[in-house]
Design a protein that fits this description.
Elements lengths: L55 H7 L1 E3 L2 E3 L4 H6 L3 H7 L2 H4 L5 H29 L4 H6 L3 H9 L7 E2 L2 H11 L4 H20 L11 H24 L8 H10 L6 H20 L14 H15 L1 H18 L25 E3 L2 E3 L1 H8 L2 H19 L8 H15 L8 E2 L1 H9 L7 H16 L8 H12 L8 H7 L4 H13 L2 H21 L3 E7 L5 E7 L8 H14 L7 E4 L8 H16 L4 E4 L3 H8 L8 E2 L2 H20 L1
Parallel strand pairs: 8-9, 9-10, 10-11
Antiparallel strand pairs: 1-2, 3-6, 4-5, 7-8
């Protein structure tokens, strides 16, 4: 719209005024802005408008001149709402708890939790790097920067961000053995995608990954991860790109199993599982208040040993590896060399050379394929699920978690990280350690930095079988067999996407499995939307006349309208004998669309042609306006039960008079 008139101000301000949208006020929109034929005139007097409307001088003051055309600003209130203290505190959660932070109430608990998680993450990080097919130091690089970033942006205290089993196996499946540069770029792109989703508030996309799909995917991923570690556990060299291919290769190389690796690996697994169970040992009374000082001390020691089981086993095996290597007789394989020192802070690689071929950014992103979308989604799902698990009934700000996770991945990529997320195992350790704020992550990050700076020369002595045992002992509990019975008892159809996701993830590829599961879920959702349940019941009034009550169980939208029309028409013909009135109870119809309105119009025409009364009852006013918008032949609508019975009584007496004549 453009105006061609000037105001009394004596300037050409309103010449070529371009109205780019509505100027929103507290509750209304400035009259005239909605009218496409609107032309601004000097005769217009804004003083007659309510006080909430902007005056001429307000518009003049806030306008912007671009290339001779004046652009009226749009929705300035929304801009102002984005720049408030409340939004600042929401997007920087550290500002909420830092002023109240005390050493006695928060500091000690965060210190204990941070150190405990740090001792847990070091062996896991090295092992997860092995799962991803990357050098061990990449796992450690992925474990410290996110801790500092999440301290500032994280809205939940329990998630311990870093490499996870799911992120490791997804990285391996998407970089196709192309090297660390591709994993680092995947981390960078993951952060960018997550930030875009956070700013665009696309968290609802996570809701399309249902519980059954998530369970099937997680279970398949756990089996794939455990399978990939069997070669190190048994000390054999196998290269296979698929689950079935691995077992085929294992059968061919079964005679090459190393006794030393196999014995050490299985022993480590048994010890890890026993130490995990050790925390359930009850010392003294159940209530901590009733325990003696000695009983509390023993319980704490047992819990600490159980929690730090990974680092205990890895350190013991590393000492064993050092002793054997010094004597020149190694019965098992040791880890590869780990680069010492901290990584340099630099942009992720946008170009990579693999063999004799050089890849630019576009080619690298193309090689990563669907991973640039699937990995960010799974990372968000994993972290938000963890946050909800430990939220104690509090609301989790999914948008803020997406922004925090995106920032963590983005900044971590500058120190050579692979994609990261919140790990359930470390989150459980964090929670059990009594963490109070996200500041516990600072201590975790410091522990990892110390390990990188001073202890990397000793990591080469860690046996591969021990790291494989750490991974297998962790992921074996990710197989969610316990959800099958509840699904069978509640809604058996949910087993279809669960098993489809599981089988496709296991036998084809993980991302294919989750896409198939989501597709099946959407198909089921669309089917239930297109085929609503329609309850038909014949009732009799106190005056003795009969009528049919037909009740759809959900809103009328275009996929379902023809089905509902067919059911109502069929019921009117067969059960209504083409004569008795039909009452369509619309109490569950919260909305409708144009196609639904056209279908209702056709339904009314069907009943009018056979002179059978059709009455709509309990219709929402918004739905009435939609139905009347297509101008049906007649639209009989009753709001109250008394109106309904009066109308039915009128139909009954009219019919009796017709029959008498």
């Amino acid at each position: 719209m453009e105006g061609d008139k000037t105001t009394d101000n004596g300037d050409d301000y309103y010449k070529n005024v371009k109205l780019v949208g509505f100027v929103k006020t507290d509750s209304e929109t400035l009259p005239g802005y909605k009218n496409e034929a609107f032309q601004w005139s000097s005769a217009d007097n804004l003083s007659s408008y309510p006080s909430s409307y902007p005056r001429e001088h307000d518009i003049l003051a806030s306008s912007k001149v671009l290339g001779g055309d004046t652009v009226v600003p749009v929705d300035q209130d929304s801009v102002n709402r984005c720049c408030t203290r409340k939004v600042l505190y929401k997007r920087l959660p550290i500002l909420q708890w830092l002023p109240k932070y005390t050493v006695g109430e928060h500091g000690i608990s965060d210190l204990v939790a941070g150190i405990t998680v740090g001792l847990t993450v070091i062996p896991q990080a090295i092992a997860f790097a092995n799962v991803a097919g990357l050098p061990p130091q990449i796992g450690l690089y992925s474990s410290f920067m996110a801790c500092f970033v999440y301290t500032i942006f994280g809205s939940c205290k329990d998630p311990a961000l870093g490499p996870t089993a799911i992120m490791a196996i997804m990285t391996r499946e998407n970089i196709h053995d192309m090297g660390p540069e591709f994993a680092i770029l995947l981390c960078f792109i993951t952060g960018i995608v997550q930030l875009i989703m956070g700013f665009a508030q696309l968290g609802f996309l996570i809701d399309f990954i249902s519980g059954p799909v998530s369970a099937g995917f997680t279970s398949a991923a756990a089996i794939v991860i455990a399978t990939s570690q069997l070669k190190d556990l048994l000390g054999i060299n196998i290269k296979a790109s698929s689950f079935i291919g691995f077992w085929d290769q294992l059968a061919m190389h079964i005679r090459e199993i190393s006794v030393g690796d196999g014995t050490l690996g299985i022993t480590c697994m048994v010890v890890l599982l026993l130490l995990r169970k050790m925390k359930d040992i009850q010392i003294g009374p159940t209530d901590m208040k009733d325990k003696t000082t000695g009983q509390r001390t023993v319980s704490s020691i047992i819990w600490l040993i159980s929690t730090a089981r990974n680092i205990i086993v890895v350190v013991f095996c590393a000492a064993l590896g050092y002793m054997y290597k010094e004597h020149g007789n190694l019965p098992f394989k040791l880890s590869s060399h780990v680069e010492s020192g901290l990584p340099s802070f630099r942009p992720p690689p946008f170009e990579s050379r693999v063999g004799n071929e050089t890849y630019n950014f576009v080619e690298m992103a193309s090689k990563l394929g669907s991973g640039i979308l699937v990995v960010p989604l799974l990372s968000i799902l994993e972290n938000i699920s963890l946050a909800k698990f430990f939220s104690d009934g509090k609301t989790v700000d999914a948008t803020q978690e997406m922004l925090a996770l995106g920032a963590c991945n983005l900044i971590s990529s500058f120190v050579g990280s692979m994609p990261i997320s919140g790990a359930l195992s470390r989150g459980a350790v964090n929670n059990a350690s009594g963490v109070k704020t996200t500041f516990g992550g600072v201590y975790t990050g410091i522990i990892v930095i110390i390990a990188l700076q001073f202890f990397t020369p000793y990591l080469v002595y860690i046996p591969k079988a021990a790291l494989a045992a750490v991974i297998i002992a962790a992921v074996v509990f990710m197989v969610e067999l316990q959800v099958v019975k509840p699904m069978w008892r509640t809604k058996k159809i949910d087993l279809i996407p669960a098993f489809a996701t599981f089988l496709c993830s296991l036998l084809i590829r993980l991302e294919v499995g989750i896409v198939v599961g989501i597709a099946i879920n959407v198909i089921i959702l669309l089917y239930t939307l297109a085929r609503p349940s329609v309850h038909v019941e014949k009732q009799q009034s106190e005056f003795g006349y009969e009528y049919l009550v037909i009740t759809p169980d959900r809103s009328l939208v275009f996929p379902s309208v023809e089905y509902v029309r067919a059911v109502v028409s069929k019921a009117g013909l067969k059960q209504g004998l083409s004569s008795i009135p039909v009452v369509m109870d619309c109490r569950h119809i919260q909305g409708a669309d144009f196609t639904a309105a056209k279908g209702v119009k056709s339904l009314i025409d069907d009943f009018v042609r056979r002179s059978q009364p059709l009455v709509f009852y309990n219709v929402k006013p918004s739905v009435i306006s939609i139905f009347q918008g297509v101008r049906p032949t007649e639209f009989n609508c009753c709001v109250t039960e008394q109106q309904l019975h009066e109308r039915l009584k009128g139909y009954y007496y009219s019919r009796m008079q017709t029959l008498t004549l």
